[in-house]
Amino acid sequence: MGDLASLFGAPMETAAEIEILQSRMILNKVIDSLDLEIDAQPHYFPLIGRFIARMRSDLEEPAPAMLGLDSFAWGGETIEVATLNVPENLVDEKLTLVAEKDGGYQLLDPDGAILLKGKVGESAADHGVQIFVRALSARPDTRFTLIRYPLDKILKKFSEDLKVSEQGKQSGIISLSYEDYDPERVANVIRHIEDAYVRQNVERRSAEAQQSLDFLQQQLPDIKSRVDAAQARLNAYQMKQGSVDVTKETELVLQQSVDLETKRLELVQQKQQALQRFTAQHPAVQAIDAQIKGIEQEQDQIKKRSSNLPETQQEVLSLMRDLEVNTQIYTTLLNSTQELQVAKAGTVGNVRIIDYPLVPDKAAKPKAALVLAASLVLGVLAGVAYLFLKKSLFHGVDKPDELERALGLATYAAIPYAPTQRRLATAVRRRAQGVHILAAADPTDVAVEALRSFRTSLQFALMEAANNVVMFTGPTPGLGKSFVSVNLGAVLAASGKKVVVIDADLRRGHLHKYIDVSAAPGLSDYVAGNADVVKVIRPTPVPGMSMITNGTTPPNPSELLMHERFAELLQTLSSKFDLVIVDTPPILPVTDAGIVGRLAGSVFMVLKEGEHPMRMVEESVRRLRHAGVQPRGAIFNQVGARGGGYGYYSSYTYSYQSAYQSEKR
């Protein structure tokens, strides 16, 4: 197939040599020479640590730790581990080496337990682990990660990082490339692969020469004895017959016979040598047999010609032919033996290294410009895709006109989300001491100004209401109903109104946390008959505003709210206060808001901007209406909390801020 190999794109010899370069015979030698089964790397700070260390790679001493993080490597650290033998359970596991003073170190297992203590330049062993650290340069407490890889894993990684290909088409020149994050190791790996490849090539040629030499040395004594015997027979015949003249015809027949017999014997030797590698049915052996058969046919023709010679000439011809043939074969074997001895002793194979590797002066990848461009493109595409999916799959109500068109509900207020509100909400969740009412802590906040605007709209709404009871509810928890209730009460009280705020969420109410008091006694205790109205109405730090907390958590909140004592309480409070504000649970999880809403003159839905789809708001309104409650309008709370700005309500916010600046001036 050698003559046909060009039809398949490359000579068979080149393809075979490429496979040899990628074979375990070569790679195992490189792995052993460079200790590639042992991976010892400094422990860098996540994300940016390796980059910082690479920028300081030219330091002669380890760089000082940044931000007091002594366990990380920050540049200039080096380690060389010559030996690392571990038990089977620690193979391919991350061990930690902690540098100590004066060249000492500790080796920790994956769980942080100490395996052994050692010193640089000395072998150490304990717990089935043996290690020899040849060199270590690092600050005390600096950590290194050590891994003993299994041979099959390192071979697989080696094969992935090593690329072997023919340079050009049918050039016979093979190119090697290897990728690694260490420039020195890249050059060392290629250099060791080349050396191992050339060495095995020389050893292979030497082994082939030795095999042929052994065969020839076995044949030489036999051929030498045949030469001596032929010489002896010729001498004996000449002594017996005397001097015999050889005619020209006899010389011609002799020369032809010698040439043919020499070729035949050489082919016989080639066949014997081939039979050491192949069977008798191999094409190479059969080809030699065919050549021997052809020579034997020519020899038969020579014998017929020699039979016409005189008897004396025939005998001399036979004896001289045997002597000449055996002499030529013996001489040829001696020459071949000397050539094979020279080849065996030589150190040059049939391959050579054209270029040795150089240490790379810059990284092959990642390409900074390409990565930056791809990152920008992918970032833009990912952002657009996210916004598109968010808009398509979860479109929350964030515009008043959508609500008015779908449900006929007017928007009474849009309350922006302020940083102070975030801080106070955190304090409420943590039960911090003090008053956490935004209207009292920061009366000039934009959210408080929005509540003042709602106060004005509410006064007109109350003119058409059956009573002065205002209820707030919403579709789900976490909308800020309690925030709106308590801060609206504070804003109304600041305007001279006498206000009471009722926490009607008997399950999870938390209005008491805003003024740092206990929940009991409260509304549930009064309705159950365990407390009178005087005890449950509590004053607050805001002048003019009182509060009724939710009280002790009852087993039947809905039944308590349906009790006549609750209705009587609202009537009493309505006559004593200018405004009664009731904070109720969300309408979708429970029915409490529908019960309280029938007793309130004005009911408002609190919505978080962009939080709830229209179908959820529609279901909330539908449940209220089925309970006999007609919502008067909606309040958008936490405007700008999702997107970082006020969006649709930016003009409102601008007006609020301008008003505050005027008041401050």
Features:
665 residues, Rossmann fold, 3 domains, 8-stranded mixed sheet, 18 strands, 49% helix, elongated
Per-chain topology:
Blueprint: H1 12-21, H2 24-34, E1 38-42, H3 49-55, E2 78-85, E3 94-99, E4 104-108, E5 114-119, E6 123-126, E7 129-137, E8 143-148, H4 151-161, E9 162-166, E10 174-178, H5 183-241, H6 248-275, H7 283-306, H8 311-345, H9 368-393, H10 400-407, E11 410-416, H11 419-429, H12 438-441, H13 446-463, E12 469-473, H14 481-494, E13 499-503, H15 523-527, H16 533-536, E14 538-539, E15 545-548, H17 557-561, H18 564-576, E16 579-583, H19 592-597, E17 602-608, H20 614-626, E18 633-639, H21 650-664
Parallel strand pairs: 11-18, 12-16, 12-17, 13-15, 13-16, 17-18
Antiparallel strand pairs: 1-8, 2-7, 3-4, 3-8, 4-5, 6-7, 9-10, 14-15
Fold and architecture overview:
Strand 6 (123-126) and strand 7 (129-137) form a beta hairpin. Helix 6 (248-275) packs antiparallel against helix 7 (283-306). Mean pLDDT is 81; it is low at 1-11 and 644-665. With 665 residues, this protein is an alpha/beta fold. The chain has 3 domains: 2-171, no CATH class; 202-345, no CATH class; 396-664, Rossmann fold (3-Layer(aba) Sandwich). The protein has helices at residues 12-21, 24-34, 49-55, 151-161, 183-241, 248-275, 283-306, 311-345, 368-393, 400-407, 419-429, 438-441, 446-463, 481-494, 523-527, 533-536, 557-561, 564-576, 592-597, 614-626, 650-664, and strands at 38-42, 78-85, 94-99, 104-108, 114-119, 123-126, 129-137, 143-148, 162-166, 174-178, 410-416, 469-473, 499-503, 538-539, 545-548, 579-583, 602-608, 633-639. The strands form 4 sheets. An 8-stranded mixed sheet has the order 11-18-17-12-16-13-15-14, with helices on both faces. Strands 1-8-3-4-5 form a 5-stranded antiparallel sheet, with no helix packed on it. Helices cover 49% and strands 15% of the residues.
